[in-house]
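For concreteness, we quote verbatim a single protein encoded this way:
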Amino acid sequence: MSEKRPRQLVKRDALIEAAARVLLREGLAGCSVRAVAEASPLTKSALHYYFEDFEELLDLAFRRAMDEFFARVEVAAEAESDPVNALWAAARTYLQLGADRPGRAPLLGFEVQIQSTRRGQLDSVREVADRNLAFFTRLLRRTGLSEPEQRASVFLATLLGALVRNSAHALDLEIFLAEAALAMGLPRPPTP
């Protein structure tokens, strides 16, 4: 994008925010130029002015949606002073945020990853995956458990699997967390 003035940046940001809302509400299949324009104060032609193509807007919107998601997960972890409780608070929030939009938020990352793979443009997906892994590695490192990087990788894969499983069959969150703790050799989660 060529250099834009502050007012133009505000309009560009409004389009990114609108696209993020549409992505979270409708998923990738429902996120079209028309849907974004209808969710924003701007027109469809503005999308073409402010972005190289619609895929650029989708990548930025996906990052924005994931930033908001991570912010909520991080707040939940930071609210706990005990490192083990912080890990489980983050896991609960991670899974509950998906449950409030069945079929949408949990699967959005997978939808975007599939489309990005087909386009050969994985920067946004990698950035989100790396952020996930770094966050859970930090949380596990604070617990003092051995091999926090490896545990974080398995823990994250377990959470992602639970999101997919929960979209088909409702998951009892506390039973799942207790099973995950047992399978991974982690301290049991406290009951909320």
About this structure: Residues 36 and 176 are 36 Å apart (CA to CA). The mean pLDDT is 87.
